């Protein structure tokens, strides 16, 4: 454990959560409670160019996934000594949030994340793998749960694994035509991550390497957060409903998504026994192989906020 950073702090360095823009940094501090258990304080933006409120008055549920991702990296770097230049890959991430607890109005944006780390493994004295489980609360009210499985790879080992793919760093990626923003609950074309596919239920991943939130720095592969957003937008298109609110998501990644080959996002609605929810299966396929599998679940009816449209996004 890095004693220089142990305990509560009022400032979370961007390199600890792999974010360059202060507006994109979700955690605000952390405290060790006991061995392998931590409390992370976080603040959700009430207005953000990308993570803006949805369904009129709800925080974007994908903020839960981003909070899990950043809290995991924060603990790994600050408490387990993972060097900031290590590559950090999440092979699995899941969350389940209370849709009513996501309401923006009348509550603060302060979130507390109780983090338990398990299944830790090391190689050469450095953390390699860990699993985290989390409970999120807001104003003392249960907000949701989450989990993630992550691997840390040294910069040298990563270069060896990726080989010639490292040459893709900074290489321009042709920006394909987007689907109309309003169809995926976005106001700005730059936030649309899907383009037309070749058949119903299929879209091509749209990669905008100039997007400051999705690409914080030049990358040699598609960031996982972009794939999560692609899954969400594909689920919205599949259900033809602007009110699709992904309060539950379970995603597993099987390989890196490359920048230079089309990645196809394919969906199907999953029949369920609960009419109160709608579940969509989303798969990313590249070169004939699956990149990720995910299940997204939304309440079948999302109450509309008074005076608000069915889905509100701030232009930012």
Automatic annotation (TrEMBL):
It comes from the Bacteria. Residues 16-152, 183-291 form the A-factor biosynthesis hotdog domain. This is ScbA protein. It comes from Streptomyces zaomyceticus.
